[in-house]
Design a protein that fits this description.
Structural class: alpha/beta
Shape: elongated
Distance between the termini: 17 Å
CATH class of the largest domain: Alpha Beta
Length: 225
């Protein structure tokens, strides 16, 4: 029987370990360049509709919705296929924040590191693979629709006496803290548009630890396994 770790680090991906805002900006630019800004806006309309209905972002699903109206607008199949290629083969490794691998190495000295991310079942794991984060965490990757609702599964998969959750969304950190209480140390990383949205963060209590950059965690010592 596996003994629980003393401390396990649960780490978000988008805007925590890699700059997902940059990916979205690049996707905006590619859609505008390929289809024109007016037609490309239909992609983002479908994108928001899917997010509202699914509870997570689905870039490929939005592309499917976009495709449904493409023939009426005279868009070629080749253009659409190349757009899917752009998303699937995007160089996510180039979007890792500075110092990510050194930070993960530092955390591993104190306990196992586990990717805990929201997202779809296709692009999100591919993003983790292409960025090198899958290998960096030795395949300890969990991806759910709403990760804060899956803590019982997280605990069964990676039993630990204490957890550290590192995320750019104060809402998720607060939800997890409400469930695990003192068993959880929350770390708020102020990177990306969610983290910097003061109005959205106002209803939530501060995290146990707040850092401006993920690499700042190299300066923190946590209880060792």
């Amino acid at each position: 029987m596996t003994h629980p770790a003393a401390t396990t680090f649960l780490i978000d991906v988008d805007n925590t370990l890699l700059d997902n805002d940059r990916f979205i900006a690049d996707l905006h630019a590619r859609l505008d360049e390929t289809f024109g800004a007016e037609d490309a806006s239909r992609y983002w309309t479908g994108f928001e509709q899917l997010r509202a209905s699914l509870g997570y972002v689905d870039y490929l699903g939005a592309l499917q919705l976009f495709r449904a109206g493409a023939s009426r607008d005279g868009m070629s199949d080749a253009q659409l296929l190349r757009m899917s290629e752009f998303v699937i083969d995007y160089p996510f490794a180039d979007r890792l924040y500075p110092g990510v691998h050194d930070t993960l190495k530092h955390l591993r000295r104190h306990g196992p590191t586990v990717i805990l991310s929201d997202g779809d079942v296709v692009l999100q794991p591919r993003k983790v693979q292409l960025s090198g984060l899958w290998e960096a965490t030795e395949g300890r990757v969990l991806i759910y629709v709403h990760k804060e609702q899956m803590l019982d599964v997280v605990e069964r998969s990676h039993p630990s006496r204490h957890y550290v959750m590192i995320d750019d969304k104060l809402r998720i950190l607060s939800a997890m803290k409400a469930i695990w209480g003192p068993r959880l140390t929350t770390v708020f990383v102020r990177q990306g548009h969610y983290a910097l949205d003061a109005a959205a963060n106002a209803p939530y209590a501060p995290a146990d630890i707040t850092v401006e950059r993920i690499s700042d965690l190299i300066n923190f010592d946590f209880p060792s396994t």
